[in-house]
Amino acid sequence: MGNEIVVGIHQPNFMPWLGYFYKIWQSDIFIFLDDVQIQKTGASYTNRVSINNNGKSQYITMPIKREKDKLQINQVEYVNEKWKKKIIGTLQAGYGKASFFKKNKDLIFDLINYKADNIAEYNMHFIKNISNKLSFNVKFVKSSDFNITTTSTQRLIDLIKKVNGNIYLSGSGGDNYQDKKMYEENSIKLIYNKMPNFTYKQYKTKEFIPGLSIIDAIFNIGFENLKEQLFNKKDI
User: FRET partner for 46 with CA separation of 20 to 30 A, picked from 65, 74, 95, 121?
Assistant: First the structure.
């Protein structure tokens, strides 16, 4: 049906894993939830992600400023520029001899070195550029553009309506907290993003490590193989 508009919504995460990009790929419109409050303490997926370090999953983190309580993601700044050099060094050490490292390192390192006013802008820049490289046909928008003050399920419904969507592509964990009936009452079909069981040969490990940043796949198998093997047939 030509009038179906699939909407995905997610916080702008830091160098996200493949499942995040699978959700983008399945969407016609993807809304960055950039004006919600950031987690008060500790690291979250908005400022950390896992990579492969000698066969083990290891977090790399973007240090952020926590000068005030109740900051929205698009109000949070990262700490200076030094962490970028450190992360590049970690990737160089961990993936330097991976099959597609040389071909893609300049692109990835340029994205890491991008200067932004806040972490939402920084993360969105990375995600948009990787999506473009993967030839995704999706429109990106920000929740902050709509100035919506509702919360929880109602907020998501209001956002979907703002972009004239009628199918909401929820994360697999959304079933725990969403009010399905509210979607029905607003003529929005609720479906769930199901990342297929996708594995590939990873450098320095025989046993596949799931849940790593998309950078791991880019350095191991490259963009073209990702397009052919994962982003080739839509479920929706």
Answer: 95
In this prediction, residues 14-41 reach a mean pLDDT of 94
| DSSP string over 24-58 | HHH-SEEEE--SSBPPSSS--TTTEEEEEETTEEE
Q: In this model, does residue 149 exceed pLDDT 70?
A: yes
Query: How far is residue 95's CA from residue 99's CA, in Å, rounded to a whole number?
Result: 9
CA dihedral 93, 94, 95, 97 (to 10 degrees): 60
Identity of residue 10:
H
Q: Taking 50 as the threshold, does the pLDDT of residue 1 lie above it?
A: no
- Residue whose entry in the numeric block shows the structure tokens 């160089």: 92
Rounded alpha-carbon distances, angstroms, from residue 70 to 13, 65, 142, 195, 196: 18, 12, 19, 32, 36
Cβ-based neighbours of 50, under 8 Å, separated by 6 or more? 17, 57, 58, 59, 60, 209, 211, 212, 213
pLDDT for 47 beyond 90: yes
SS3 content of the chain, % helix, strand, coil (to 5): 40, 15, 45
Q: Which two tokens stand for residue 124?
A: 């969105």
Three-point CA angle 42, 48, 54, nearest 5°: 120
Whole-angstrom distance, CA of residue 236 vs CA of residue 7: 11
Distance CA 159, CA 170 (A): 13
